[in-house]
Each structure stands twice: as structure tokens, then as C-alpha cells.
Specification:
This protein has 617 residues and is an alpha/beta fold. It has 21 helices and 16 strands. 33% of the residues lie in helices and 12% in strands. Strand 9, helix 3 and strand 10 form a beta-alpha-beta unit. The longest helix has 30 residues.
Length: 617
Amino acid sequence: MSLTTRQFYRLCLCVALGAAMAACSTDDAGQSATSGADESQPQLADPSAQRADPTRRSIAQGQLTGLVQDNGSLAWKGIPFAQPPVGELRWKLPQTPELWNGTFSATDIIQPCPQFVSGLSAGIADPDGDGIVGSEDCLYLSVYAPDDIPEGERLPVMYWIFGGGNNSGYAGDYNGGELAQSQDVIVVTVNYRLGSLGWFYHPAILEAGATGAAASGNWSTVDTIAGLQWVQDNIATFGGDAENVTIFGESAGGGNVMSLVTSPMAEGLFHRAIVQSGGIGTTTLAQGVNYHDDNVPGHEHSSREIINMILVRDGLAADRESAKALQASMSRDAIRDLLYSQDAAAFLKLYNPEAARNYPAPKKFADGTVFVEQDPLAQLASGNYNQVPIILGTNRDERRIYLYAAMTDVIRNDPDEYIRFAHYPSVQWKWRGVDNLARRMAPAQEAPVYAYRFDWDEQRVSDSGLDMAVAIGAAHSTEMAFIFGDWDVGFISGDALYDPATNPGRDQLSAAMMSYWSSFAYTGETGTGRDGSLPLWQPWRNGDNNPKTLILDSAADGGIRMMTEEVTLDSIKADFMAEQWSDPTNRCRAYLATFAGTPAFDRSEYMGLTEGGCGGR
């Protein structure tokens, strides 16, 4: 039996994912056992049926239909790409989805995985009022396509990974129809398990003899890999090119794009990457499982600490110390049964009694299979990652979205102080998510590395008189609406944000961004956009006065242009220390927001920032 490289990799991946269906096997000729012919994707058995219903398709799981959207684009919503990870499949690798009889109606919006109620779950009902929405049965994806794809043509695929701190959000909140229709691409939006249901490691939950990804705790990361494998197997049926897949995502979704860029398991499943307001990072397995007072300390919410909390909560132990002793006496099976008996909502509340959207939990374990056991920044510098053309970007005012509600008085009375306060943690995000990565990647790979900064800030004045251009500006998540051509996407959207007087410039910038993004999806180069009419977006080049970052803004605010400046922690610190502040309390708070958790944080410097020190502020 002779296999091509691609067939061999696919077979290995299917084994790693625990897939046992015929769709993951090969026959003696090296062909797909389900097609019985060649490596082509599943095709519609009856072309006349597709003429009667333009959304009728055939995939590995069976026949399905979708819907025609208002703008003419075709959509297939809520397609299962894995079996529901419920019962015995909780904390297991995603399993190959089951076949269905008849025709599957792919018209329902993807529902979220379990999460706390928040602005990112708006519109999702919480009928029992427990503050948790969603279902563990959540591994679904949606496909969006333009309405008129020439026969035989294969379009670039853009695979969207949503954000939300990896604790919240859902793929159903994003409609790729406008991007697909206007740019002639196929858009796929994918759900993945969240929080401690998506990343959880404890030896007791592992199957006997489990190795590799099955013993990694990175269930969520492998969900996104399984979705990419589904694209490889099925996307041609929708008009997509499995050999031209761009992964893109925002915030935690951008970080998850970087996870795929650095994961050996994702090799060959995508060909370009776009990271919007992302970052990079992993944790150790020890952090995921150890007690927080072990010699090698674990996370405060490691799996063993969570078991302690369960035992105390359920009255089986009086306190943490007695819970530790009880846990040490429990068998592996008893611990496993305890964990698997947990209701999802009650389990999440162990991490987050206050029901905030984000909660602390270890994620992205450097297990040696899904993630390499190496510092991610060193990994990038070494070139030992999936080298593809990549775009890295942030928004100029990232942090304002998190600050404005608590600082409305400052916005009204001293807007310059508010802008000053928000600037430093925002530019630190640029250092963390763009410049610090691009400096390492640009010399390590032949494929181009592009950078952008989104600057658009022409919002309206709110009904209460708050200038949203100051309060929000080019804040975190505001660029997504421009890329999807959907003005209801983002933390704050629609009429609450946009000013009819500036909407023409907004729409022009949106068209330019979609053009750049789709040009990159087609060719791996941003260039001058799909139609060649935009300013040249040059790749990042290390060194003084070399092009670095494309500024994305409307013509009224300077337009689209390249800049050569870059930031380092040292440059941010120097600017911060030279800044004049109206309120010394703001200086203390901004220092923490900018430098805490980075090598630039200096406690003695922090304590001496203001007269009387920052310690009590």
C-alpha cells in the first residue's frame, strides 16, 4: 500500500483525533474509502437536485441544505463537525461526526458552549436563571459562500475563530455572508469548547494508555484542528479550495490562530494566518494539575485544586487541607467519576463564583504534542513552527472598551487624561501581539509577515452626551465589523456606535479592509488589495526606518498609510515615565494596567511613582 504525504498525514491525524470511521481510512489504491474513486471532495450525487435548491450539497456525513441570505449569499449553519462532547466524551478528543439519514437542514444558528451570561452571549436565553448559557453539545460550524461560483472553480477558504477570552463567545454571532459575497471567498465559522471544559488536565480523566493529544488536556485546541480537518474533507462541495485555507481570528481567537501556527498537529491544514488583537502563550502541565503549594506550584484553579473545591462544596471535606487528604486517598476511578458527574454550570461556578465573563483557569498546555515544550517566543525565533504568510494587527485604542464604563466622569471632565490612561496598556498590546512577534518571525521565515494598526474613531455622541469617539475610539473588537461588513458585530455596535455623517468614510474603509484580507487569502500577499487600487501594504522589515505597520483609517483622518515606528517595552516605559498626569491615582493605575505581568514591572519604581507612593492606591 502506497500513500501520498497528504494521505499519510491525514491518516495519522485521524488516528490522533480518535476517528474510527471509514472517512478516515484509505483503500489499497491510496484513495478515500468513502469516495472509492480519488482524492476529490464529496460531490453532489444528483446535479439536478442542486439546480432545484442551490443550497443542496453532499458531504461525508450525508445530504444537507442551507439557506439563501438577504444579500444573496448562501449559508449552511450549524453543521456538526464532531460528535457532541458530552457524557463519556467530555474531556476527550473530538470524535468523527456520525452519518445522518435523509437531508440535514443546516439553517440553525450555532449555539454557544457553556459560559457565563455576558455581552458576548447577547440573545441567548438563560431560562433557569443560573447565569450560565449554552450546551456542551456545541461542536458545530457554519459555511458561507457567494451565490454564483463558476462550475469547477475553487475559492479561497477563510476559517474564522471567534474571541472572548476563551471563556465566552460563539461562532453563531458572526455571519460571513457579506465577506463571502463581496470578495468571492468561502467563510467558515467554527465553535470550540471553552474554559475549563475546553482545557482541563488530570491523569484520572485520561483513558488507559492515552498518549499524545489524547493525554494533553488541550481539547479545545484540537477542536479547531478537527474543524480544519473537516474543511479538508468537505469544503470543495461548497466551492472552496482545501489547498488554500486562511485561518483568522480576533482577541482570544487571534491567540488561537497563533496556537495553530505553533502547533505541530495543525501542520498542512492551513496556508495563511491573520491574527487580530491576539497574542501567544502556553502553560505547563504542572500548572494545570499540581496543588498551588506543591514544590512545583500549580495554578490556583488547577485540576487538583478544583477537586478540593468540589469536596468542600459537597460537604465531603471541611476545608482545603482535609480535602487534600481525602483526595490523596481516592482511587483514580473515584476521582474520574467525581469529575464526570459534575453538572457543567456548577463546575464552571467553582472557578468564578461572581459569574464574571472571564475567569482564571489554566489553558494551552505545553504537552509536547499539541504544543511544543518550548517558550513560544523562542519557538518563533527558531523558525520551528508552521511558517505561512501572516498578518499581525491590533487596534490603536484596544483598552478603551474595558475602561470607558468606569471612567465616564473622566471622559466628560478630562478627556485628555482618559486618552492618556488608555494609551499605554493599548500600546503594550501592540508590543505583545504584533511588534514582539514580528521582530522574531520576519527573519525566521521566507513568507511575508505583515502588520497593521486599526485607527478608525469617528463614532457618534451618545444619547447621554458621551463622545463615543473618545470613550471607545479604535477599541478592542471594533475592527471586526469592518472585516465582516456587518455593523452589528462587536461589543458595542449598530446605532449605539456609528454616526450617519461619517458612515461613508467608514464604509470605504471597510471595503478596503475586506479587499486587503481577501487579497491575502487569494495570494498570501496583501499588495494593493484585490482590485489593485489601494496603497501598497509592505511586509514588516526589521531595522530603523524600514516599513513596519499599515495604518488603517478613513481618508478624513489621514487615510491608509505605512509607518516605520515600532514599540518595545523599553520605549513604552520611557514614554510613560515622561508623561504628565492630572491625577496621580491614574498614573498608578495606568502603570499596573500597562506593565504588571511583564518584565518591565518594577515594584520599587511603582511604589515611588507619586508623592506618597502607589501602594495604597
